[in-house]
Queue: 4 jobs
Job 1
Amino acid sequence: MTIYDQLREPPFSLDETAIAWVRDVYASLSLDEKVGQLFTLIMIGTDEEEFKRLGALRPGGVTRFFTPDLDFERRVISDLVERSKVPPIISADLEGSRHSFAFGTPVLGQLGLAAVDDVEATEKSSEILAREGRAMGVRWSFTPVIDVNAAFRSPIVGTRSYGSDIDKIERHSVAHVHGLQKNGIAATAKHWPGEGFDDRDQHLLTTINPLSMAQWEETFGRLYRRLIGEGVLSVMSGHIALPAYIRSKYPDAGLEAFRPASVSRLLNVDLLRNQLRFNGIIVSDATPMGGLSAWGHHTQTMPEIIANGCDMILFSDAPEEDMAAVKSAVEDGRITAERLEEAVLRVLALKAHLKLFRPSDVLPDAAEARNVLAQPESVAASKEFIARSPTLVKDVDGIFPLDPARTKRVLLVDGGIIHPLMPQPLKFSLPELLAKEGFEVTIDRPDIVPSPEDFDLVIYALGDESLLVRGRIFLDWHKMGGGGLFKAMYRPWTNIPSVIISFGHPYHLYDAPRVPAYINAYSTMDSVQEAVVDCMVGRKPFLGTNPVDPFCGLEDARY
C-alpha cells in the first residue's frame, strides 16, 4: 500500500479530487517549502511585524492565542493566509474555560463538563467551540485531553482532563471528538502515550508513565484505540516516557527506556502506527517544553521528532535555526526521503480533508463570523451546562444556603485568578456578586485576624486552574493571608463558619482537610462564579458530581 493509498483510508478518507490536490501541491514544493510544512509556529501577542516574519517562513500552520480584539484577530489571520503559497492550518487549544474566545461563548472546560457528566452537554459544548473556532479560521484543535487524574498533585492534568474514571473519560472524549469533527475542526487526542500518573509537569521535565503494559492497555490503550476507531484525525505525542513498552522490546534499554515519546520511533511508529493502527497525523507537543529541552539541544531534537515518526513539529523558539536543522538532516540522510515525503503528505492530507484548498474554508466571511460568535442559543445552552457544574463536596455544618440575615458580614480571602499567560492575577467578580445578594464583603488584609465579633462568614476564593510551569498547586497560607507567620497558621473555622471555593484545581482539601465546607467549580470564568453564587444562596441546587476524588484519599477530609 502506497502512502496515497493510506490517505484514501480513514481518518483522512480523501477522494480523488483531494488526492490530486495533495499530489500537485507536493510536486510544487521546494525542499525549503517541504520543511516549512512540517512546522506549526506560535502566534502570540500583537506584534504584527513578528507575525509577518513568521509567515515569511511559510510554515504548515500556526497556533494562535487570541486577544479580545475581534477585528485585530481577523486582520492578522487574513494577512497570514493571503501571504501563504499553501493554505496554513490555523490551530488552537479549544479547551473551554479561560481558553474560550473573549468575544465568543463562555464554555466549560473538560473537568467542569465531567462534573456535569452529560455527554450531550459535552458534545454541544464542543460544537460551540468548533463553530466559533471556524469563524476565526481555526480548523485544528489540540483537544481532547485524555489524560487521567490519577496523581492529585499534578499541576498540569487537573482541570484539563475528564477526571479519573476511564469509562467517563472515554464517553466524554468520544463526544468531544464528534462535536469538533462533525463541525469541521480536526480533533487531537493528547498527550500520547498518556499523562497523569506522574505528579510532575512535562513543561518542566520529561514525565514518566509508570504503568505496566497490561495496566496501560486497560487505561490509555483503551482510550486511544477507541478514539482511533472513532476517526480522530490527530494524536499529540508528548514529552512523556513509557519505559514498560521500551523494555518489552529492549530489556536492557537503560536511559533509552525514558526517551520522550515525541522523539521515540518505538512509541510513535511501532506502538501508535503499527499496533494501534493510527493512520492520521502525529504532531509533537510544544518543543520549547522542558520535557524535550532537558533531553537534547533543539537542533538535535527537531530532526529527531520527524525521523522518529511525528509528522509535524509544534512551536519553535528559533524557527529559522530549527528549519535549517531539519533541512540539514534531510540532506545528510538522518531524515530519509521517504520519511520526509510521508510527513509532508500527511500534513497536506489534513488540509485536504478540511477542504483548505477552497478559500472560503480557510477564513470565512467576516459578516458570517460575527453572526456565529456568541449566538444567543449557544450562550443559553452553555450557561445551562455551567449552572449544573458547581459541586458541593462537603458541608458538615450545614451553612448552605447562605442568607445575609444570618451571615451578613463576609470576609473574602482572595487568592486571585492565576493564568500562565497573564503577568498579574486577574480579579474575581465574586465580591460584587455577593454584595448584590445583600452581603457586606470585606477583602482580607494583612492586619485582619478574623473573629466572630467582626465577621459571620469566611470565604476562601481560589483561582488556580491547571497551570503550566508550576511544579505544584497548593494552598500557600502565608502568601494568601499576607499577615506573617502566625496568621498563616491561624484557621478561623473553629469559631466562624467558613468555606473554601476552588474555581480550578479540585484538590485543595489536601491542604485544608478540616475546612467544614468546600466547593469545586473547575473554572474561574465570571459565568461560573455567578453559578456558584446561585447555588450558595439556594437559588439553584448543587448538581455537579465529583469527577475525581477531591478528598485525595484522606479519610479525615470527609468530616
Note: The two ends are 62 Å apart (CA to CA).
Job 2
Amino acid sequence: MPFMFGIILAYYFQNTQLLRITTYALAFQLSIAGIINLYYKQLKAWRFKLLLASFYYCLFFVAGLFTCLHHAAPLKANYFANGKFDQLKVWISNQPQVHGDIARFEVEVTKGFSNDNVENCSGTLLIALKVDTLNPIDLNYGDEFLISAKYLPVEPSYNPGEFDFRRWLASKNIYHQTFIRQTQLVRLAANKGNPLKSLALQTRQQLVNVYRKLIKNDEAFAVASTLILGYRADLSKETLAAYSKTGTIHALSVSGMHVGIIYVALNFILGFLDKRQFTKLIKVVLICTLIWAYSFLTGFSPSVLRAAIMLTAFILSKQLSRSSNSYNVIGFTALCLLLYEPFLLWDVGFQLSFMAVIGLIYYQPKIRKWLYFKNKWANQLWETTAMGLAAQLATLPLSIYYFHQFPVYFIISNLFILIPITVMMYLGIAILLLKLNFLAPAFEYLITFTNSGLKWIADLPYASITEIWINGVELALLALFLLLVSIGLSSYRRKLVLASLIVLFVFQASITNRKINFAQQEKVIFFSLRKNYAAAFVNGKECILITDLTPKDLNFDFFVKPALDEMEVQHIKFVSWEQDFRDKHLMKGKHQIIYKGKSILLLDEAFNHKKLLAPSKFDWVWIHNNPKYKLTDLAREVQLSGVLIDASNKDYIISQLSKQAILLNLSAHTLKKQQAIYLKL
C-alpha cells in the first residue's frame, strides 16, 4: 500500500528535482535498512517494532516515488521530445491494430538525427499510419523504421464526458503522437524488439491463422481467437455489447479465470505424481512451466501475466509448505508488476482483476455459508454462484465508475457460460496443441450457441441498468461503504455498521442532489468537434441538439452523447442548421436562435455581400461554413458580446476571424481543438 501511494503521488507531481531528492532519500534509507539487518541482534531492534514498521513503510513509500519518477519518460534526459530532430529511428513495440485504411501502433524511439548529428533517444511515440489499400505495408512487432520527426503532444478531451485519450495514453507513459502516410516510412530492419516477445506474437498469429482456416463463422472465429489467445482485433461491437450487458465481458479477457481452468485440468491430469515428494516437485515444475507456456501463446498478455505470477507464487508456497496467506500472494504479485511497470496502477484491467481476486478471497467463503445443499451438484452450483456474487460485489464501484452500467442478470449469464467456457477452453487448446481438427465443428457450434444465449439474455427487459454516472468522490464513498459494512457485519461490530450507514446516506444525498439539479438544469453547450458542429440546448431532461450529426454517427457517440448521458438527458430532438424550429423554450428561424432570453445570430455564407437593415443586439454570433462577412463590418451593425466559430470553417478563416475578434475586443471561442463552451443563462 505505501509503495502504491508513492507511485500515485509521484504520478501527479513529476519533476526532475523530486526525482533527484527521492534518489538520495532512497539510497540513504536502503543503507539504514542494511545496517539494521546486519546488526539486528546487537541493536536489539525487536524492542522498536513500531519505529521499525514506520521506517519500512516510509522506505516503500519513497521506493514507490522513485520507481514512478524513474519510469516517467519526459523526466529522462534523452527523451526524444526534449531535443530537436529532423528524423527519428523507431521500432514497433506492440502489435499494430488496423481499422479500415488506418493502422495504429506504438514505437520505441532509439535515435534522433539532425543535420550530421546522431543522438541516442528514449520514449514511446504513438503512430497513426495511412495505409495504401492497393499495396498495404506489412507491419510486425520489432520492425525498425526511419520517420520524420514531426509529432505533436497528445490532445486532451475537449468535451464534457468525453473519453480522455491523453490521460489514457499518459497512463501508458505515452505523451506524443504523429500521423504519417505509408510512403513516409523507410524500413531499416526487422526483429529489433524482445526476441521472446517477438516469437510469442508470431506464434500467436500462426495459431490465429489455424482458427481462421477451421472456423467458418466470422463471429465464432473472433470469439475463439479472443477467448483462447487474447487476440481481439476481429471482435464485433454487437458481440462485445452482448457480453458487456450480461456481465460476462471477463470471459473475453484472457485472465485469471482462463489460467485457473488450465490449472484445474493440469492438476487433475498430473494427479498421479502426488504419491512421492520427488514426483510432487516434478508436478509443480510441469504445471508452472505449462502455465507460463500458455502465457507465451497469448503474447504475454498483461492480464495473463498477472494470473501466472499469482498462481506460480501460490503453487510454490504450497509446495514449500509455507503458510500461503492469500493477501500476501496478491501483494507480492502487485509488487512484481508495479516494480516493472508502475503506470499499470492506472490500467482498468489491473484494478478490476485485483479487486475481483480480493473479492473471491474475502467475500466468497462468507457468501458460501449462507446456504448449504446436501445434493452435491446443487451445492456446487451454489458455490459457483457465490464466486460470481463475490467478484461482482468487489468490483461494483469500479465497474459503475468506468462503464456506467450494471448487468442485472449477471448471476444467470455467468452460470450459463460456466460450462460452455470451460469446454471451449479445453476444445480450443486441444485443436491447437494436439491437432484434433475434427473437433472444430463442435467448437464452432458451442461458441455460436453461447453467443446466441448471451444475446438473448442481453435483450431481456431490464437486462442492464445503463447511464449510471458517479464522480470520484462518490466512487470513494461507495467503496468506503462496502468496506465498512463488510467488516462490520463479518466481525459483528455495530459502530462500523453505523459508520457505513452514515457513508451510504452521504453517498445517496450526493446523488439525489445531483439528480435534483439535473431535473432543473438550463444549459447551452457548444461542442468542440473536428469537422462537424453541435450545440445542445438543455432544459431539465430534454435537449434540442442543433447539429449535422445523426444518432448513429460515431462522432455523436464519442463527443456529444457522453455529456448528455452524464446530465441524464433522456429526450433529444435533432435539428439541422438549415431547419427552422420552434417550441415553448427555443425559437430558431431567420438566422437567429432565441433561448431562455439569450439570443444568438447564425452567420453563414447566406450573409455574403449583404447588410443587416436595422441595428440589432445579440449575446453571441455563431459563425458557420466560411462566410465572407467581416467581423469589423458586423460590429458596426450589431451589438454583440462574443463570437463562436465552429469546425465547419476552414482553418485559415478561423485564424482570420479570431484575429478580427481580438482587435474588436470581443470574446472569441473556436470550437475546434479547444474546450467546449458553456453559455450561462
Note: The chain has a mean pLDDT of 88.
Job 3
Amino acid sequence: MSDADSPFRAPRPGRPDTGDSRTWADDAKAWADTRDAHRLIAEALARLVAADPTIPPHPYLSRHLAHHAARGEVLDDAHVPLAVLPWESSANVRTLLRQSDAVSAVRRQEWLEAWARIEPFIGGAGPDSRLTSLHLAHHAATRPRTPLDTSAARVSGSRVTPLWSDWTARDNVLAVSETRLESLTRTTTTDGRSLLVSGDDHGTIRMWEPHGVPAMAPLHTYGGAVQHLLPLPGDLLLSAGTDGSVRVWHLTRGQLLAEPVHRPGTWVSALTLFAAKDAPEVVLVAHSDGRLGALDPVTFRPVDTPLPSLDPAPALLSGVGLGGAEGMALAVAQGRRVRVWDPRRPDGYTYEHQHEGAVRALVDLAAPGRYALCDDSGYIGFRDASTGRETPVAPAPPAGPVVALTALTVAGRAAVASGGSDHTLRVWDARTGAAIGGPLEGHTAPPVALTTLPGTSQATSRELPAPAGQELLVPAGQELLVSAGADHTLRRWKPGGGGGGAGRAVRRPVTTAALSGPGSTAGAPLIAVADESGTALWDTGTGRPVALPAGHAPVTAFASARVRGEPLLVTAHRDAGIQLWSLERGAHAAPARLAGLLGHSLPVRSMAAFPYEGRTLLVTGGEDGTVRLWDLDRVCALACREDHLLSVRDVAVLDTARGPRIASAGTDGTVRLWDPVTLRPAGAPLHCEQRVVNAVAAVPVDEPDGAELVASGGEDGTIRLWDPGTGRPVGRRLDIGDGPVAALAFFRTATGRPCLAATGPGGTIHLWDTDTGSHLLRIVTGSPLGALDALDARQPGGPHPEHPVLLAAGVAGVCVFGIRMEGR
C-alpha cells in the first residue's frame, strides 16, 4: 500500500491534524534528528487510536506505534495508550522498555509495564482475554493492598473488576519457548554481537538477542533433543544430544556444514574443548557407552591424541586450566565417581573421589587448577585438580538435586551459579564457598542450563513496577546470569542483587488462600492468606489486616464454616493439627481460638465444611492418605478412611440424587465418593486416567433433580466431568494447555451461567462454560498459581452484588476480582 493510499499518511502541510490545530509544516520544523521524527510519528499515530479498547486498531498501529515511541524516546502511556495494547504486535513491549533510554519521572508507563509483565505468556489469547489480563496486571502493580477504587475498577471490554491485590510477579523473562529447553550457551559473532543460543527437546536450535528477541531463523537438527552446545570462532557452533550425532553449524548463515560424528543407539553425554600442554586444542566427544573421541576444531576430522580410558557409562567432562603454559587437566565424572586426568603425568589419573549422588555438572573456574561440581544429593563444592582439596559451599543449599552450574564474575570475584530442583538459582563465591546474595526465585520448574551475558554501564533491564526512569544499572564488567528452565522460559538475573527486573518484595510466596465471605458491613470479602511468615485475614473493603495469633505451625489449608450461627475460620497446619477460630468479633478483631482437632499424621492438603441434618461437618484430606470426617458442633472426630494409596490432594462436597456426597482426589489417580455420615464408599472409585488428580470440584447441572457432576483436574493438564451415579465421564476432556491442573473452582455468572475456573503452574486462569464445554476466557497472570476460590454471589450491600468473586493465589501473591462475563 502506498503512502497516498494509507489511512495513516502524514497530513499535508497547512492541513490540521485530527483533533489538533498544529500543522504538519509546524511539526516539520522540529525534526532536528531521526529521534524527533519518530516522536512525531508516535504522537500522530497515538491520536488515531480509538478510545474503546474493544475496537481493533488498524494493523499499522498495533505493529508500529510502540516501536516508533521507543525510537522517539516517548515510550509512555500517553503515546502508547491502553486501547492499543491488547492488540499490540510489534517487537515486544518488554524489549522496547529495556532498550529505550531513561524517561523523565513525570512520564507514566504503568500500562506499558503491566503489559510487559504478562506479554511473554499471552500467546494466542483473544482480545477479551488480553484486555482482561492487562486490567488485572495493572491493578496488581499500581494498587497493592488497596481497597476497591470504583473510579479505577472498570475498563471497557475487561471481564473483571479488580477488588484487592497483593501481587509481586517477577519481570525477568527474556523469552518463552513452546518446547522444553535443554541447553544454553552464549556466543560472540564475528561482527561483535553477543547472542544467546538454546537447544530444545525437539532438536531445534534458536538464537536470541540479549533482550530476548529471536535473532535469526531457527536451525532444525531433525534428530533428538539438543543437550550440548559448543560455540567456536568464526560463527561456528557444535551441537549434540540424544541421537548420538555431533553437527557443525554456521550460525549467521543458518547452514549445517558437517556431521562429523554419527553413532545411532547412543547419546552424546559431553562436548567440550580441551588443550593438553604443548598440544593443539581438540574437541572431546563422550558417548553414553563410555567411548571418548577427539575432533580437530577446524577440520572436524578425528584426531589421534592421548585420551583417558573411561568406564562403559555416560561421562561428564570439563577441561580444567592449569595456568600459564601448563595446558589443561580433564575432570571426568561417571555416576558418583569423579576423577582428574592430567596428561603431563605418566600415571594418568591423579586422584578420584566418590559422591553421595550422581554428579550432574562440572565447570572450570578462573583460578588455575580449580573446578566446581554438583550432584543429585544437593552437594555443591570446589576442588583442586592436583590435590583434590575440597571447599564445599556454605550454607548448604536445600536438599534435592543440583542440576546446572556456570562460572561467572560478581563484583570482581570469581563465582559459580547453581540451579536446583527447588526451581531456584544461587550464587557462590568460588574461593570461599560463601553464598553471594539470596536465592533467585521465579522459575516454576528446575533451571536446566545456565550461561552469562556481559554487563555494560548502560541500563540493561528495568525493575518493574518501579517508577519509570529508575533503571537497574549493571556496572561494567559485571556479568548477568541467564537461565533456561524446564518451564519453557529464558530468564535474566543480576547475580547478588536479585532478579534482573525482579518486582519489589512484599511477601514470601502464598502457600494457601481462601475467601471467607463478607468481612465488613460493606459486604466486601474477607480473605485468609498464608505464607511462610504467617497468616493474616484481610478485609478487602478497608484494606486492613488482622494476623492470627502466633505460636502455630504454618498454615496448609483453610475452610470457612458457620456453627450455630457463629462464623468460624478453620486452619490446617504443617504439624498436621487443625484449629478452629471464631470470627464473631468482626473482621478487625483478632480471631479467638476455640478448639483444636488432632488425627492426621501428616499435613492436611484440603478441607471443606458443610451443613448436614442440623450439624456442621468438616471433611479433611491429608498427605497421610486419609480422608477424615469431623463434627464441628461437638468438636470431635466421626470417621476415617485410608482407601487412597497415597496423598489426598483435594476434597469437595456435592449434591447428588441420593443426597450429599464427599469427593476426594488423590495422588493414586482416583476420585472417591463417600457417604457424609459413615464415610463409607458411595460407589466404585473413579479412575480418572489423568495420572495424579490434583483438584476436584462439584459442578451443578440445570436439571430438575438438582444433581451435581464431579470435576477432576489432573497432572496431565486436563479436566474431566463425571456422573457420580454411573461413574462415567460426561462430555469431552477440557485441556488447559499450559501444564498440570493445580486448582478448580465453580461459580455462576450474573445470569446463572455455570462456569468452571482452572489454573496451574503456567499462571493462567481458564474459564469454561460447563453446559457447553466452551472455553470462555484466559486470564494471564505470568506467575504460577496454586489456589482458586470462588464466591457465587456477594452479600447484599456490596459494591457489585450481581457478580461472582474469584480469588487466585500462588508464587507472586494473591488477587481478588469480580467476574463479569455478560455485558461490558
Note: The chain has six helices and 56 strands.
Job 4
Amino acid sequence: MLVSTSIWCQAQQAKTKPTDSVNTIPDTLLFKIQTAQSAITEINAANKKGYNLDAIQRQFNTVKENVNPLVISFKAKEELDTKNLLSFDLILRDADTRLKNITAILVQNSNALQKMSDQVVSLSSDTLLQNNNGEDGRKLYHQQISEIKSRLQEAGKLTGENLSQVNVLLANISALNVVVNDLRAQTAEKLALSGKLALRKRNPYLWHATLQNPASQTTGNLIASSYQGQQQILKYFIHSTWDNRFLAILISVVFFIWVHRNFKSSRRAAIRRQLGDLKFEYLKPFPIFSTLIVLLNITPLFEPDAPALYIELIQLLLLAVMSVHLWNTLEKKQLRFWLMLMALYTIMIIGNAGVDDTLPLRVVLIAINIFFIWIGIQLFNKVTFKEFSKKYVRTVLIILILMNALSVLLNLFGRVDMAKVTSVTGVIGLIQLIGLSVFMQIMLDALDLQMKISSCNNGLFSRINHMKTKAKFKKGLSVLCVLLWVIVLLINLSLIGGLWQWISEILSKPRVFGSIHFSLGNIVFFIVIIYIANKLQKHVPLLFGEERITFNEDSGHKGSKVALVRLVIIVLGVLLAVMASGLPMDKLTVVLGAFGVGIGLGMQNIVNNFVSGIILIFEKPFRIGDYVELADKKGKVRDIGIRSSKLLTPQGSEVIIPNGDLLSGRLVNWTLGNDFIKTELVFKVSAESDFEDIKKIISGMLNEAENTVKKLPPEVLLNNITADSLEIKVLLWINNIYVEAEFKSDFLQQLVKKLKDASVKIM
C-alpha cells in the first residue's frame, strides 16, 4: 500500500511553508509527524504481507519441477515418439503461460516496492529527521522523532528485502523462460520430423528379432519404466486441466439430478395412474452408471489436448462401467464376447508399453491384431446398431480392420511404434462405437422419460410432437457422437493438436476486403448467432404455451406477445452478430447507407412488410386464433410473423399474407370483440301454407337450439311471394363463427322433418 497522495502533498507543502509565528512550529511538526507515522505504518503493513512471494515461489518451483525432467530427456538425446512429444508440448505451453502470469504479478509488485522505496528515501531526507536541536518545539517531539527514525529504518530494510526477493524471482523466471522457449523450439522441430521418423525402420524385421532384450530388461521392467514416464505427464495433465474436467462433471451431475427427479415424479399417484410403472433398458431410477457412461463419453469433447494414454484409460474405464451396467442385459454369448474384448484391450494398452524389439512380445501384438481383424470381419454383416446408420457402423469396422492389418505390416517390417498407435486406434474406434451407442440410448431414454412426465403435467412437451422431437434429438446426438468419435481417433493418431492449430490459424488470420478488416472466425460467429436467433424465434410459441392452431372452436385466441418476443430476439441476434463480426461502427454506417440505397432501388416491399409487422404487434388489429376476412380470403390466424402472417382456411390450406397487405387492405375481423355471427336461412314453401304456423315452428326450434344467442332474438321474415310459393328468410345470431356450417346443416335437417310432420310442402 502507498501513502495517500493528498496527505503526502500536504506534508511537503507544510515542510516548505514559511512560518509567520513561532507558535505555528509545534502545529507544523505535529502534522508532519502524524503524516510520517501513517506513511511508515502503511509501508510496514504492506511489506509484512510479503506480496504473496512465498506462494509465487511455490508456483515457480512447481513449474521448474515439471520442466526439469523434460530438460533431462532432451539432454540425454532420447528418441521420443510423437505421443511423448505432444505431451511435452502440452507441459511446455502450460509452463510458458504460468511463467508469463507470474512475471506480470512480480513486475507489478516490483513497481509498488520501488515506489515504497522512493517514499522511504524521501522521508529520510525530510527536515523532520534532521538534527536541528536548537529549533523551537522540536525538543517537545524528540521521542516521537526518534521512534519515526527507528521505524523508518525497519521499513527500508523490509522494503529492500522484498524488492531483492522479487528481483531474484524475476531473474530465475527469466532464466527458466529461456529454457522453456528453447525446449518448445526443439519440441516443435522434432514434431515436424516425427511423421517422417515414425515410418523409418527403428527396430529389426520380425524374422531378425531376438528372443531376449539385449539390455536384459524384463517385460515388467519395460512396462514399469514406460509408465513411470507417462505417469508424470498424466499427473500434470490432470492437475492442469481440472477446470475442463469440472465442467464435464457438472454436466453429468445435472444429468443425474434431471433423471432422478423425473423417476421420482413418475412415482406420484396421479402420474403413475396414467403411465404405470416405467421401465427402461438403459436407465435406472438411481442412474449412477448411466451418469458415468455419459461422463466418460463426453470427456474427450472437453479435453481435446489429452495425452493418448489418458484417452486409452478413459476407454478402459468406460468398458468396465458398461460391463457392470449391462451385465444383466447382455446374453451369455454377448457377455463372453464383451469380456474377451475388455481383456484383450487391457492386454493391448499394457503390453504396448513393453513391446520393443523382442520376438515374443511382437508376436503377441500381431496375434491380438489378427483377432481384431477377425472380429471386424465377423461383425461387418452381422451386427447392426439401431442408434447409428449401417454405413457409419461399417465405416468404423473397416477402420478397425485396416488399422490392425496396417499394424501387422508395420510390426513385421520394424515400425513397432507406428504399429502400437494404429492397433490401439482401431480398437478404440470399436469401443467408441459401442460406448456411444449406449450413450445415445441413455439420452433417448432420458428424453422419453421427460416427455412422458411433462405430458402428464401439461408441460412443454405436452404441446409438441413427440416423434418429431425424438427424431430431431436423435439427429443432433448422432452429430455429437460422430464428432466425439473423430476427436478420439485424432487424439490417438496424435493429429488433434496440429489440426486444431491449423483451424485456429485459418479462423484467426486477419483478412482485408477493401478497407474492411475481418477474420473467418468473425464470419463463423456471425453466421452461428444469426442461425441460433432464427431457430429461437421460430420456436418461441412453444415457450409461451402456444399450441398448434387448428380450424375449430377450441383453439382459443392468443395475444401478440409471441410476435413481440420474436422481434426482440431478431433485433438482439442481429446486434450480437454485428458485434461478433468485428465490423467497426464507421464501416457499419457505410453498410447501412448501402442498405438504404437498396431499399430505394428494390427493397421497399420487404421493408414495408417488416415495418407493418412491427405496427401489427403493437396495434393488435387481430390475434392468433381470430377469424378474419381479407379480399377473397377467409380463415383463422395461425401465426403472426415479422414479415408475413399465416391464415388457415376452412378448406385446410395455409395462406401466407404479407403484413403490408394486412395493414393496408380492408380487413374484417369476425372475432375481435366476440365470436358471434349473424347468419340467415332462406327456403320456400307452398303458397297455400300458413306463414304463422311456420313461424311458430321455426321459433320453437331456435329456442331449443344450443348454439344460438338467446339474448338476441331471431327474426322470421316473409321475404318474397310468388304465384305458387312463399320465400321465408330466418335471421339469427350464432355464438361461434366456427359452427355456422354445422348449425345450418342440423337445423335444416330438423326443419324438413318438422315441416313434413305439419304437412307443409317445401318448394
Note: The chain is about 65% helix and 10% strand.
